[in-house]
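As described in the Methods, two query proteins were run sequentially through the folding procedure within a single session, without resetting any intermediate state between them. The first query and its resulting structure tokens are shown here.
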Amino acid sequence: MSLATLDPSEARIADGSFTIDEFCNAERMSRGMLYRAWREGWGPEFYLVGTHRRITQRARLEWQRQREAAANGEIASTKRLRR
């Protein structure tokens, strides 16, 4: 089955990458927060298709792991401060 015959909602699954809007919807975050993450250096990796940014599923999972690790580090340091 070619991508041309797929429903647009199914194309992301076959393609394995997200547009900015798809990524933001999946992560329940605003576009502004995603652009802030990139500006501050903690956003997911992406690649360009022409002028459009795409985020792979692999990059999304890696970004989630990094965010979880950062959150766990913040929680641990907060617990140390309370003692």
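Immediately afterward, the second query was submitted; its sequence and tokens are:
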Amino acid sequence: MRRIILSNFQAPGDILMLTAAVRDLHRCHAGEFITDVRTSCPGLWENNPWLTPLDPGDAGVESVHCKYPLIHRSEQGGRHFIHGFMDFLNARLGTRVMPTSFRGDIHLSPEEQSAASPLARHLGGSDLPYWIIVAGGKFDFTIKWWHFRRWQAVVDHFRGRLLFVQTGKAGDYHPPLKGVVDLRGRTNLRDLVQLMHHAQGVLCPVTFHMHLAAAVPRASGSSGERPCVVVAGGRESPHWEAYPAHQFLHTVGALPCCDTGGCWRSRIAPLGDGDSKDGVDHLCVEVVRGLPRCMDLLTPEHVAERIDYYLAGGRCRPLTAEQARRAAACVTPDEPVAFARAPELATRSFSEMQLPTGSTALNHNTNTTNVCHSM
């Protein structure tokens, strides 16, 4: 039996895909491997039944740093992100791993499953059905951002019908929304897993949360897949990122820059932070109103329509009148943004973008930052 320590120190979404590869390594080669991991996200491995503690110094223990070069052939092969690490392990270990479940592999303890949701704890015991919303992202991939006023217009459209809980990592770009429960910077990975466990649905760009939405089991009493609406644009091909039960709003095939697949570019303007993603080959080729044209084409109406699909189909429930009353008391009140005004308001100045203090994006000349952030 081979003993192997698998390592990777990329972003949480990458580590989540590695959990699937470890699961399916054991399912496809039962009894042939003992595995342990060294990764940047230990919280994603808690309660994982496929891991056994291994010491890299012990005789016979192999260490394998995992990659997914398959991404560089993703436009030609029609493969999903979940195949990435599996394809690598097959080449490295001589295995025949394939997906046995089309999702990452997240496990909750019995205590986590029976505990109240993090939202209930935040509200002092008052539990309400909710959707998670992510209205920003990392600075290394600003091309994935949608303007916060468009996110706000969607939230306002469902005011009184859905409660949104805003999450996001401290230090990344996550401007505050009104009319939501604000948990930005207040959840570690394990908190987010538990928050996802109880969530009715998820609204986000292409990010870790969409993969977590597919991976985390739904709370007791919820059946089927968790609704998820992804504002994707044209950076990644849908076959690489999307899940069957998600509404993945993309523009691949609609524009010259993504006519046969995702453009795979990174930013809409240089940030001047020394990252190679500032290079011309990594920049969006068509910026409209401060957004990549592929993201500008996606309107709040488009996004709301996809959420309405889930409501109309019974995959999630609107708030009752009593729940709506309680939800209104939990969020910051604000004048709703109408759909028709969202693009107009999205052209307002960079000074209104409410970027985090000390952000590198604030340290550039005015023209560059206006292009990059006045979305």
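The domain at 118-373 is CATH 3.40.50.2000 (Rossmann fold). We note this only descriptively and draw no conclusion about the first query from it.
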